[in-house]
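Minutes, project check-in
Item: structure for the 122-residue chain
Input as provided by the requester:
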Amino acid sequence: QVQLVESGGGLVQAGGSLRLSCVASGRTFSQYAMGWFRQAPGKEREFVAFISPGAEETKYADSVKGRFAISKDNAKYTMYLQMNSLKPGDTAVYYCAVQIRNGNTVSDYTYWGQGTQVTVSS
């Protein structure tokens, strides 16, 4: 069983930056491929970014490519999402999760955290 706890959300003006953190329990963190998802009010949860276990590979949704950066510190059992040039459309609850099979849909992930709210004002 893995527990994930997100933090770092908040209210920011458009054009600003935030860094989200996802801290994991358990000693096998270095073996996990992980991802960030987000869910805006009235919308389905959507993929944001993926990182391989050793951080050699990353993938991003087209909507955040060039603005967001995912990283992973296995020694600290922590994954990050650096979000720059934020837009009002980035407003959502952001979740981290562990990938259990290839793919970047919600069903390809498990051990979801409780989420952290990001609000971008115009």
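Outcome recorded: The chain has no helices and eleven strands.
No further action items on this chain.
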